[in-house]
Every structure is written in C-alpha cells, then in structure tokens.
Design brief:
Radius of gyration: 18 Å
Order of helices and strands: EHEHEEHEEEEH
Helix content: 10-25%
Mean pLDDT: 90
CATH topology: Rossmann fold
Number of domains: 1
Distance between the termini: 17 Å
Strand order of the largest sheet: 2-5-1-6-7-8
Number of helices: 4
Strand content: 15-25%
Shape: globular
Low-confidence stretches: none
Number of strands: 8
CATH superfamily: P-loop containing nucleotide triphosphate hydrolases
Structural class: alpha/beta
CATH class: Alpha Beta
CATH architecture: 3-Layer(aba) Sandwich
Length: 171
C-alpha cells in the first residue's frame, strides 16, 4: 500500500521549498517519517564533471547507483523517453508515513497553494486545479478565499490541517 501524498504548489519564487522544509521539520519533530518528491526544471544536474558517477554516465551508462553505509542514490538517464509521472515515481519514495511533493500541480493529489508577495505571478492556481485544498499566504486579500487560508508561517496549523485532511495516524 502506498503512503499518503500531500503537496505544495505555487509560482516561481513563492517560497515552495521554504514551506516544504518547514513542513518536513515539523512532521519529523512529531515522529512522522517523510519522503519527498520534488519536480525540477528540465536541465537540473545533481552530478558534476570530474565525479566518477558523472564519467560513467558520460560513457553511456543508462543508470548509475551510488551506495554507501549511510545512503544510496539512483540516477537514471531518460534519453528520449518521456518524463516519469508522479505515479511512476512514488514506488521510489520507500517506506514512510507521508510523501510530501513539491510541484506536479497538474497531478491529482491534495495540495496547498503558497502565495507570497514577490512571486512570479499573483494568479490563483486554485481556480485551475481543484486538488488545491488550502492556501498558505502572506497576503491579507487571500483571507476572503473559500478554501482554508493559513499564514505561511503557521506551520503547526498547516501540519495539523494535513494530518486531519489525510486522516494520518500519529506515530
């Protein structure tokens, strides 16, 4: 059985990663084990020239796995294959109490939309994506939303909302 999923979506520079980090911290302080899936831009790179794994991929390896006593990492070159869907990525999340997702706004799973002054757009994503179940905002005008609205710094309240929304059992 797959763990429950909850996500954070928002425009560029809205603070998605900051909110994710705060949520992860609060959930783990409460004893939950968390896995994260983050959607990245097309040309992201976690490997760098000069590293053994980079040289192996450059030589043509389709997949490189790095393993140590503390962690492992898997890098797979997709080539001309399409990007994996969220459903295809979920099995890699491993055993956990909750998968937090950053991005994948078009995928069908519950999510909170973050709105912040200075974001790339002021357009509401909740109007286009019905899976948005709440708003995290620093803008007073968002308080008139029909969805639950939390201040972006109200992390404990947001985590309580996620726990209730997903019906999570406290560890």
């Amino acid at each position: 059985m797959s763990p429950p999923i909850f996500g954070v979506v928002g425009w560029k520079n809205s603070g998605k990663t900051t909110l994710m980090g705060n949520l992860i911290h609060e959930f783990t302080n409460r004893g939950f084990s968390i896995s994260v899936i983050k959607h990245a831009h097309e040309k992201f790179e976690i490997d760098h020239p000069g590293r053994d794994s980079f040289r192996m991929r450059e030589a043509g390896a389709r997949q490189v796995m790095l393993s140590s006593p503390r962690r492992f990492a898997l890098m797979r070159e997709l080539g001309d294959l399409p990007e994996l869907t969220l459903d295809e990525l979920l099995p890699y999340a491993g055993s956990c109490d909750l998968v937090l997702v950053e991005g994948y706004k078009r995928e069908a799973y519950p999510k909170i939309e973050i709105r912040r002054e200075g974001a790339a757009s002021r357009e509401a994503l909740s109007a286009e994506f019905p899976e948005v179940v709440a708003i995290a905002s620093d803008r007073p005008e968002d308080e008139t939303e029909p969805l639950p609205v939390f201040h972006i710094d109200a992390i404990e309240r947001i985590v309580d909302f996620i726990i209730t929304t997903l019906g999570l059992k406290r560890p």
